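Final report, Chapter 2: Outcomes

The project's central promise was a pipeline that accepts a single protein chain and returns its three-dimensional structure in a standardized token representation, suitable for archiving and comparison. That pipeline is now operational. To close this chapter, we reproduce one record exactly as it appears in the project archive, with the input sequence first and the structure output second.
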Amino acid sequence: MHCLARAEAYPAFLPPDRVNWRTLPERQRQWREFVTHASYGRDRCLVVLEGEGIVGFAAGGGQRHGDPDYPGEVWSLYILRAWQGRGHGRGLMSEVARRQVAAGHAGLIVWTQGVNAPARGFYERLGGRYVRSRPVEGIEIVGYGWPDARTLI
């Protein structure tokens, strides 16, 4: 699901070799490590949207990029195109925010590619405010933040 969602979302603005640059075994190892990490369920969370199989998910935890005003982070948010526009993204963000607030993270940040206008518009409609940008391997990444993550719940 993750690979398919990336393939649907990113070809418009990422080089083909970056769309699915990890192999399936690498992704399986990554997710196995994620859900078996000692902080899973306390600080880390994974929320899955099921329809015809897994059709979307969001993952979050403590933020990783030195933003003290945003101690929680949405690390991933993907929904298959056929399931978008139905409020599922808002629901996934709300659940990650609820879990991050419960973990003691009052503020929440999410990062997306600067050229990803649909994602940026989505985060803005949810009340996210532009925080800053940073380069990652030649791609501008922008952060949207909610100083009070409870506004997403």
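Archive annotation: The beta strands are 45-51, 53-62, 72-79, 108-113, 129-136, 139-146.
This record, like all others produced under the grant, will remain available to the consortium after the project formally closes.
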